[in-house]
């Protein structure tokens, strides 16, 4: 027997208690499993190290390391709230266009279409769509110069959607030949430990204003 449930009865489970709106980029604190909008939670943790809801200490010095994107919950929110996903995509497009930047999803869709049109259906192939993403350059510095010497060049060019976890996997396979060793690697920016789910784009947008040269301690 089916029973209709009003959306307002589910609001407490799909809303962020910080902004009082529906969850956007739902992100969960791994210590207590409370979920918030990613931007709301990150802004909160820049000043405090406790969960905004239960006040439990997430981590004394690196709380951002203990939050994780909840894709399943975000999909549930999009399915429950009519037109929310379309509205969010429209706002993202307006954000990029107002700054004269290309919308990443449109570039990806175009590259997929071009790839499908240029390759016959009978030919099996794989297209690297990440080449069409916004690209970012990363310079890797280590306190252990001998270890860093194992890399031919301490520079990487990769998609802006690359996460810190991806970089740790890459370094683990290069230095230790074992992906499991990624747990022994920490990646920092200006002496701040970065969370594993942070993308390079997120680090750029939220941390670039704090950039200084580590050798001279002067703004770049």
Can you describe this structure?
By secondary structure, this protein is of the alpha+beta class. It has three domains: 7-86, 2-Layer Sandwich (Herpes Virus-1); 102-133, no CATH class; 134-210, Phosphatidylinositol 3-kinase Catalytic Subunit, Chain A, domain 1 (Ubiquitin-like (UB roll)), CATH 3.10.20.90. The chain is 36% helix and 11% strand. The chain is built from eight helices and seven strands, in the order αββαβαααβαβαββα. The chain has helices at 7-14, 38-45, 71-80, 84-98, 104-118, 145-148, 164-175, 200-207; strands at 26-29, 35-37, 67-69, 135-139, 155-159, 188-189, 192-193. The strands form three sheets. Strands 2-1-3 form a three-stranded antiparallel beta sheet. β6 (188-189) and β7 (192-193) form a beta hairpin. The longest helix is centred in the middle third of the chain and has 15 residues, at 84-98.
Defining traits:
Ubiquitin-like (UB roll), Herpes Virus-1, 7 strands, 11% strand, two-stranded antiparallel ribbon, 220 residues, three-stranded antiparallel beta sheet, globular, alpha+beta
In the CATH scheme, what's the topology name of the largest domain? Herpes Virus-1
The shape, in one word, is globular
**Backbone CA Rg:** 21 Å
Number of helices: 8
Number of strands: 7
CATH superfamily of the largest domain: Zinc/RING finger domain, C3HC4 (zinc finger)
Q: Count structural domains.
A: 3
Average residue-wise pLDDT:
79
CATH architecture of the largest domain, by name, is 2-Layer Sandwich
Query: Major beta sheet, specifics?
Result: 3 strands, antiparallel
Bin the helical content. Answer: 25-40%
Order of helices and strands: HEEHEHHHEHEHEEH
How far apart lie the N and C ends?
65 Å
Content of β-strand: 5-15%
Order the strands across the largest sheet as they lie in space. 2-1-3
Low-confidence stretches: 121-126, 212-216
């Amino acid at each position: 027997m089916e029973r209709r449930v009003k959306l307002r009865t589910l609001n407490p489970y799909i809303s962020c208690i910080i902004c009082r709106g529906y969850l956007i980029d739902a992100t969960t604190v791994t210590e207590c499993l409370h979920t918030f909008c990613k931007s709301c939670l990150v802004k909160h943790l820049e000043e405090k190290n406790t969960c905004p809801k239960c006040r439990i200490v997430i981590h004394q010095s690196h709380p951002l390391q203990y939050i994780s994107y909840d894709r399943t919950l975000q999909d549930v929110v999009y399915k429950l709230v009519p037109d929310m996903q379309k509205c969010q995509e429209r706002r993202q497009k307006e954000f990029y266009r107002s700054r004269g930047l290309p919308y990443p999803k449109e570039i990806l869709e175009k590259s997929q279409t071009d790839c499908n049109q240029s390759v016959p259906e009978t030919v099996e192939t794989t297209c690297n769509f990440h080449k069409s993403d916004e690209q970012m350059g990363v310079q890797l510095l280590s306190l252990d110069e001998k270890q860093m010497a194992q890399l031919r060049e301490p520079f990487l060019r990769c998609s802006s959607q690359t996460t810190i976890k991806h970089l740790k996997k890459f370094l683990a396979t290069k230095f230790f030949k074992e992906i499991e060793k990624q747990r022994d690697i920490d990646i920092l920016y200006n002496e701040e430990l970065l969370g594993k789910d942070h993308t390079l784009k997120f680090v750029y947008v939220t941390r670039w204003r704090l950039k200084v040269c580590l050798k001279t301690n002067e703004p770049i």
